[in-house]
DNA sequence: CTAGGGTTAG
């Protein structure tokens, strides 16, 4: 039985509408999946990937769909469903393939189910899956994502000897991240020595992790000395990630400084990315310079060649609301919907309330219609009261009725198709 | 076929 069917049978899952999905590239798959907010819908897409056994569906897309389904279930607090879904993979023949099992460990990690991740790793011998750094690194990542940082060094110094492999640069990268998260960049720096002794390559990524941790601790001098040393001794070259750490460090200050550092990047031949520009947008916004912030946003795609991400939209919508520029906020919101990167619920609630308060009822209603499609019912429940107060309650009722009907019709189709 | 830089709430 497919994982999806197993879960449906266990839970009598409701199923929403969807067209048949034929992914071609990973980026197309991602943009489609980003628009899927209903966890059951996400599960259905995942099962269509696995059931079709289509060679044009890359393993990366399947993994992305699995993580997305699990994320959506977590958003609805359906943790026992996550367990049923992921555990059902263990009876499939592919479970003896390490990448397949590793993706289960990763999926447990992204939703903070660290106990299930380590249990899965421990079961590998019984399941007949060989252990290399691949599953090991998946486990270490799961610990970091679940924020159980102190388990990382424990496993790091236990499993490689026990199972006969050597930690690689990724393993060390995660170990360094864990020490940094535990507030100990000093220990992380000691690991660099260990890497050198073992002949493991030290890359710019691990160094930026440490640099960031030093800045976070407030030791700017130490951070800059550390980096200077790495540049002169290890010949380490700054990249966009390095500059983004520096931008993080200064973006609470004057916009001129942020702008200057971005110019410096351009002069150094390092192209600032969306994250870099988000710092500039944030900096302008908190300084009340919304026109400048909007100008950066408007230039982003055309002049800078960067796509705005969900954070870009969130920052702008929030600060535009703060300045009571709700109609501009609404325009930005519409663009975020168009590219499938809408801000989270509370930011949008802020905007709807502002629009209604200023009498822009058409826009407020349009937003509610969109939000009803994009957020889980649990979140929308608290919504009813607010809409009543704003005189928008009927919008909600209409919407619920129409989706209700669609669900019944589609469920019928699914039953027929799966028998 | 993996690690960082963002992802808090306001």
Automatic annotation (TrEMBL):
Keywords attached to this entry: Repeat
UniProt xrefs under PROSITE patterns: PPR
One Pfam short name: PPR
Residue ranges of PPR repeats: 168-202, 203-238, 273-308
Family: Belongs to the PPR family. P subfamily.
PANTHER family xref list: PENTATRICOPEPTIDE REPEAT-CONTAINING PROTEIN 1, MITOCHONDRIAL, SMALL RIBOSOMAL SUBUNIT PROTEIN ML103 (RPPR7)
NCBIfam families the UniProt entry points to: PPR
Listed name of the protein: Pentatricopeptide repeat-containing protein
């Amino acid at each position: 039985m497919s994982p999806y069917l197993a879960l449906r049978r266990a839970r009598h899952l409701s199923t929403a509408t969807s067209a048949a999905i034929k992914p071609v590239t990973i980026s197309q798959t991602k943009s489609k999946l980003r628009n899927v907010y209903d966890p059951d819908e996400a599960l259905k897409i995942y099962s269509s990937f696995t059931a079709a056994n289509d060679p044009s569906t890359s393993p990366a897309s399947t993994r992305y769909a699995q993580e997305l389904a699990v994320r959506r279930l977590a958003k609805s607090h359906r943790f026992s469903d996550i367990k049923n879904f992921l555990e059902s993979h263990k009876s499939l023949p592919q479970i003896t393939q390490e990448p397949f099992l590793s993706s289960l460990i990763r999926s447990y990690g992204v939703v903070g189910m660290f106990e299930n991740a380590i249990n899965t790793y421990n079961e590998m011998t019984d399941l007949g899956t060989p252990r290399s750094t691949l599953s090991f690194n998946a486990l270490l990542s799961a610990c970091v994502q679940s924020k159980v940082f102190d388990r990382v060094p424990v496993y790091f110094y236990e499993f490689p000897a026990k199972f006969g492999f050597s930690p690689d640069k990724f393993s060390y990268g995660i170990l360094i991240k864990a020490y940094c998260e535990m507030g100990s960049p000093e220990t992380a720096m000691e690991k660099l020595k260990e890497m050198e002794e073992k002949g493991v390559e030290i890359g710019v990524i691990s160094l930026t992790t440490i640099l960031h941790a030093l800045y976070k601790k407030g030791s700017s001098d130490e951070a800059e000395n550390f980096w200077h040393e790495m540049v002169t001794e290890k010949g380490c070259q700054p990249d966009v990630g390095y500059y983004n750490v520096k931008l993080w460090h200064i973006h609470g200050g004057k916009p001129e400084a942020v702008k200057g550092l971005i110019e410096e990047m351009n002069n150094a031949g390092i192209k600032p990315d969306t994250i870099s520009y988000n710092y500039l947008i944030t900096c302008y916004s908190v300084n009340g310079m919304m026109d400048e912030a909007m100008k950066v946003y408007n230039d982003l795609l055309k002049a800078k060649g960067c796509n705005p991400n969900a954070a870009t939209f969130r920052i702008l919508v929030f600060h535009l609301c703060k300045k009571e520029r709700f109609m501009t906020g609404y325009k930005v919101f519409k663009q975020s919907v168009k590219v499938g990167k809408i801000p989270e619920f509370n930011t949008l609630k802020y905007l709807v309330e502002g629009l209604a308060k200023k009498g822009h009822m058409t826009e407020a209603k349009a937003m509610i219609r969109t939000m009803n499609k994009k957020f889980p019912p649990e979140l929308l429940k608290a919504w009813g009261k607010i809409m009543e107060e704003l005189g928008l309650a009927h919008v909600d009722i209409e919407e619920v009725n129409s989706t209700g009907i669609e669900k019944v019709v589609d469920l019928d189709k699914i039953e027929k198709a799966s028998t």
